[in-house]
Amino acid sequence: RRAQAMDGAAVVDEVLQSGLRGRGGAAFPAGIKWKTVRAARGPQKYVVCNADEGDSGTYSDRMTMEGDPFMLIEGMAIVALAVGATQGYIYIRSEYPHAIATMTEAIARATAAGWLGDAFRLQVRKGAGSYVCGEETAMLESIEGKRGIVRAKPPLPAVQGLFGAPTVINNVISLATVPWILAEGAGAYAAFGMGRSRGTMPIQLAGNIRQGGLFESAFGVTLGELVDEIGGGTRSGRPVRAVQVGGPLGAYVPESQWDIPLDYESYAAAGAVVGHGGIVVHDDTADMAQLARYAMQFCAIESCGKCTPCRIGSTRGVEVIDRITAG
Length: 327
Description:
This protein is an alpha/beta fold and 327 residues long. The chain contains 13 helices and 11 strands. Strands 8-7-11-9-10 form a 5-stranded mixed sheet, covered by helices on one side. Strands 3-2-1-4 form a 4-stranded parallel sheet, with helices on both faces. The protein has a two-stranded antiparallel sheet with strand order 5-6.
């Protein structure tokens, strides 16, 4: 209701002041993206939710869509109001049938109740199984009915995105956070976190851990606290050897770095990534060479084939790891 009473520029400014950044992994300031789309000219603008949650050990998007779909719908409606968009799409991976069913039903109910309609229409689009479609431009290609391969940038999607129109693209958690920011104020959200990483992050604990699950925490918590205090250590009772953070393209973080605060900049400085907040724990029986090979082979299998360094490099990477393990 507060967003409806505000000017679109004021809504964008509120999100800018909150410090909200993309929770899908890219960590780009949401307000700047919205500001660009709002300023862009065109008869049609779109809002797209990227729910192609493909990183290992991640499930916060799925749990949000299945548990509170209206939070996401409200967030997307607020974005549409702020930037002048009339059509929205939620791109959900095909492996999430329950999320697809729940979101479809929630959209139908919201439309019947008059919350969605001519001013802003919303549709679900089912992904076709490609990991690369988690990248925003490949996702746009897929929604348009084309092969899911990355586009060259520029133009940026905020200027020329879906069907060539200005498009806001955000992750599920980013969009679902917007109603809280508008209800409580930018200052209340920015009060959480540290440095340029403001607010909270849904941490997903998985792998060899006693108490796995979804935990929302302010930025600044350490891996040591997450694994030992919240997660209760390994399920096997053995010492932790490494913790995979940020999915298959992230890093296996050794014990020497478990005291680094969970913060986009701090992790980047250490050569790691926060990514989508997925944490997979491995104990001292894990074969790190096999884990490295698995991650590299995943990249080779999932490459869309557009860029030579990825297409060829990932295949050569598997061969290099095989040669190293063979001595």
